[in-house]
Amino acid sequence: MDRLKEAIRRQGTVQSGKVLQLDAILNHQVDPELIMEMGEEFARLYRESGVTKVVTIESSGIPIGFAAAYKLGVPMVFARRKKTLTTDNDSYCERVPSFTKGIVTDLMISKKLLSSKDRVLIIDDIIANGDAVRGVIRILEQAGCTLVGLGIAVEKAFEKGAPALREAGVRLDSLVRVASVDGSEVRFTD
Questions:
Q1: What is the tens place of the pLDDT at every residue in 129-144?
Q2: What EC number(s) has UniProt assigned to this enzyme (predicted)?
């Protein structure tokens, strides 16, 4: 997706060699028009897959997940990272390490929101090691859902997450694939 690549070149910053900060694009501020284009692209890729729900991860996956769900005409569910007073105690929960935060967090989805009849498309903003996505996949397995695929806005192709998921047989579509980050330069594949 050329428009996303251009936004990353203009507004993304590289921190500590491997961390690509996209606060001005995906993680703190969003361009609604770009987000809706991303949602449309994921809808185009998965329209024929019989998706009944889009699942994403709090918080940066929410805008893209919403856009894809809207374009597909299905509900969106997001995995919460923090338990609140209103969090359903009857929830699926998985512990996952966070690549960018450097901590272990919980992912929770209420059991009322998933069923064995659901055909789920997972949407996320960035994949590096893939730990958070694997946590969501484990939740979907517990719920008996069918995973139709994984839509990623930005794939760090130089990290192990996406290749490992593809090798495990998961359909994974990325809008852009980052080949490397060197100093302040971001290089894309394709």
A1: 999 999 999 999 999 9
A2: 2.4.2.22
pLDDT in tens, 78-93: 999 877 666 678 999 9
For the full predicted model, state whether its pTM sits above 0.85.
yes
DSSP string, the chain: -HHHHHHHHHH-EEETTTEEE-IIIIIS---HHHHHHHHHHHHHHHGGGT--EEEEETTTTHHHHHHHHHHHT--EEEEBSS--TTS-SSEEEEEEE-TTT-SEEEEEEEGGG--TT-EEEEEEEEESS-HHHHHHHHHHHHHTPEEEEEEEEEEETTSSHHHHHHHTT--EEEEEEEEEEETTEEEE--
Sign of the torsion formed by the C-alpha atoms of 174, 176, 178 and 184: negative
